[in-house]
Amino acid sequence: MNASSRVLMIGLLMAVISTSGTAQFAEPVYGIHPSEQRFLRYNYYTNVLDSVKVSLKIGEFAVREGNSRNFLFLEHLAPGMVVDGDSTQGRDELLASYGGTTGFQVPKDGCTLQWWRMFECNVLTKHNGIDCDSAVGYDARRGWKVGTNKMQDQSEFRVELCSDENVVIAVIDSFGVHRNPESEYAGLFGGAVDGSQRSFIVPKSLAGTMLHCRIVPYRYGSTPFGMEMVQFGEANSTNLSASEQIKNGVFVWVDSVRSLELEQEYKRALFAYTDSCIQKTGHMPANEPTGLSMRISDEYLARYYTNIKRHGTITAMDPKYPSAWEVSGSFMNDSINRSAEYHLPSVQFARDFNAHLTKGDSTEIVILNGEEDSNLVHISLRSRTDLTKIYAHCDVSLHHGANRATLDIHDVDNGQYLALVQDKKHGVTISRMVSIEK
Predict the structure, then answer these.
(1) How far apart are CA 345 and CA 423, in angstroms?
(2) Are β-strands 68-71 and 41-48 bridged in parallel, bridged antiparallel, or unpaired?
C-alpha cells in the first residue's frame, strides 16, 4: 500500500463500524423470493500457494436508512464459473471487474452501508494421498501460524465506494496478510481482520450521488499465478451471516438447536411464498428451489406433487399445479426496478423429455421471446443436486418471436435433471425439472 492510500485509510476507518468483538449473528434472510436469492450470492476468492490457501468469502451488501434495508446485488456469474485472476503484481483489474455491486442513490440524510466477509487461511496437507486442508492457529498479535516462509504472497482485499463513473470516492475496507520469510506467523493487517460484520457511514454531504461498491484483490509475491474467484449462492438456505462468523480470528458456527430453527423458519417461509404464488397466479413460482435438505424436500414434494415414485436415487412425480413455464405471465425482477414487470421468455420443449430416447439423440427447444430487441440466453441441463455439473448446454441469441435451439443429450443417462435458462441481459435464471428415460 503506498503512502497516499495509507493516509486515506486512516481518515476513513474512523467511520467504519465493526462487530468483531462478539459473534453476534445477523438477522436471517431466506433465499426464496428472487430478490433474496440475488442478495445471497457471495464472491469467493482464493490464493493457493504451495502449502497454504488464503481465502475470502464476501457478500450481503445492503444500504440501511433508518429501519429500512435495501439490498445491493453482486454482479451475477454463471454457476460454477471460475475466473482466473491476473498473474501480475499489485491490483488485479480482471477480478476487480467482476467485483461490483448494483448502485444506489445516497438519501438526503446519508445512510449506512453493510456487508459481511470471512477472511481465512488453511494449511494444505495430504491424508492417505487425498488433498486436504486444515485451519491454522491464530494469535491476535502475531497473526496466522502457518510455518516460516510458507506465506509466499502478500494478499490484500479492498472494498471501494465508487461513483457512477467508477471514480473511487473512498476505500471503506482494507485488510490482508503479510509474507513471513523469517517467522512462523504471517501477520494480518487492516481493519477488523478478526471479525465478519462490517459497516460504513455514508455522510449526507454525498446526498443525491449514485454510488456502488467494488471488491478489489491485490497480490504481491514470488508465486507465478494469480488469485481466482468463483461465485456461489445460498438460494435454499439463509444468509451466511446468520449462521457463521469470525470471532477473535476463530470460525464460529451457530449451535445445532439454532441451526434447526433456521431450517424450520426457512421451510415456513418457503411454503408461505409458494402457497401465495399459487393462490395469486394459479401456478408454481418460476424459481422453484433445488437441493433442499431431505427433511424439507419430502414435505415439499408431498405438498406440491403427486404420484411420487422413487427408483433408487431418482424421484418421479407429477405436479399438482402448473409450472410457471406452462402459463403465460410475468415475473417481478427486483434487480431492474421494484415496480417494473419483466416478461420472462416462455420456454417450450419441442419433444417430451419423458419419451424413450437413445444415445446420440438431441432435443429441440423452442423459446418464445416477447421483447423486440435481441437477447442472449444460456441453456443448460444440470444435476439437480450439484448445479456445477453440466451435461449439455448451448447459447442462443434470441430475436422477437419463436427461436429454436438444439440441445445435444447423447451422453446423458436416465434420471431427473434441472433445465436452466439464464438470461444474460437481465441477470435472471429460471429453471424446470425434467426427466429422461431411455
Answers:
(1) 9
(2) unpaired
Higher pLDDT, residue 297 or 362: 297
| Distances in whole angstroms, Cα of residue 387 to Cα of each of 81, 135, 322 | 11, 27, 24
pTM of the model: 0.69
DSSP assignment string, 17-70: EE-TTS--PPPP-BTTSHHHHHHTEEEEEEEE-SSEEEEEEEEEEEEEETTEEE
First to last CA, the chain: 60
- Nearest CA-CA partner of 18 in 200, 157, 250: 200
Q: Are 386 and 338 in contact (CB under 8 A)?
A: no
CA dihedral sign of residues 302, 276, 333, 202:
negative
- CA-based nearest residue to 378, from 370, 367, 386, 389: 367
What DSSP assignment string belongs to 251-305? EEE--HHHHHHHHHHHHHHHHHHHHHHHHHHSS--SS---S--HHHHHHHHHHHE
- Amino acid of residue 424: K
Beta bridge partner(s), residue 173: 159
Q: How high does pLDDT run on average in the chain? A: 76
What average pLDDT does this structure show over 142-156? Answer: 92
The predicted model gives 76-80 an average pLDDT of 75
Distances from the Cα of 34 to the Cα of 119, 243, 335, 432, angstroms: 28, 21, 9, 15
Residue 181 falls in which region: left (phi positive, over 0), alpha (psi -120 to 50) or beta: alpha
Q: What is the pLDDT of residue 171?
A: 95
